[in-house]
UniProtKB/TrEMBL annotation:
Domain Glycine transporter: 7-81, 93-166
Pfam families from the UniProt entry: Gly_transporter
Organism listed in the record: Paracoccus angustae
Domain of life: Bacteria
Name the record gives this protein: Trimeric intracellular cation channel family protein
InterPro entries: Gly_transporter (IPR005115)
Keywords recorded for this protein, A-Z: Cell membrane, Membrane, Transmembrane, Transmembrane helix
Compartmental location: Cell membrane
Ranges annotated as spanning the membrane: 6-24, 31-54, 66-84, 91-111, 117-138, 150-169, 175-198
Record family assignment: Belongs to the UPF0126 family.
Main localisation: membrane
Membrane-protein topology: Multi-pass membrane protein
């Protein structure tokens, strides 16, 4: 766990930062705007997680190289975004892979604090969803978390629950976190490719 969770944090920050920079490219911002979006997206979910868990300092203050990582991702996208025909589709798939590493990172860090299973699941969901939510709201994009007939929060929730359940029956934590990421990407990819979804609420006339 000691080595896996920081690696997952680095990976999620990098991939989320790439999605933030791609949103900046769709908005045709300058390089500083790219860095702002990449950093905001890369560290957003983890920052909320650490603040809720009372971790001091938050992860990127303790490891400032993560901010350099997001800036590097922004510079890379600034000079290469024009090579991709559909940047939105790339954002969606990179976001899916970011979820698959961010949720296990949130679960793993919450476990290290000794949090209850309910809090562990919640921190997995928060770590996975808040960076992208902040990115889309600030970028004036329809948040992926609100897209109808897609599994998004459900994918993060499912992965976190699987991790907690597997740990509860005695599976080693690193292995459980790997399964967590696999469940997240499987559910998200199934939603994008095969149309998997949950029933949505449909308004009905009030009963008299």
């Amino acid at each position: 766990m000691a080595g896996l969770v920081p690696w997952l944090d680095h990976a999620s920050v990098l991939v989320f930062a790439l999605t933030g920079a791609l949103v900046a490219s769709r908005a045709q911002l300058d390089l500083v705007g790219f860095i702002f979006f990449a950093t905001l997206t890369g560290i957003g979910g983890g920052t909320v997680r650490d603040l809720v868990l009372g971790r001091d300092p938050v992860f990127w203050v303790q490891r400032p190289e993560l901010v350099l990582l997001t800036a590097g991702a922004a510079v890379l996208v600034f000079f290469t975004a024009h090579l991709f025909e559909s940047r939105y589709r790339l954002i969606v798939w990179l976001d899916a892979f970011a979820l698959a590493v961010a949720v296990p990172a949130g679960v793993g860090l919450a476990l290290e604090t000794g949090a209850s299973p309910v809090v562990v699941v919640a921190m997995g969901v928060v770590t996975g969803t808040f960076g992208g939510l902040i990115r889309d709201v600030v970028g004036n994009e329809l948040p992926l978390v609100l897209k109808q007939k897609e599994l998004y929060v459900t994918a993060t929730f499912g992965g976190a629950v699987v991790a907690v359940a597997l740990i509860g029956v005695g599976m080693p934590r690193p292995v459980a976190l790997i399964f967590c990421g696999l469940v997240v990407i499987a559910l998200r990819a199934g939603s994008l490719l095969l149309g998997w979804s949950l029933p949505t609420y449909k308004a009905r006339p009030p009963r008299r």
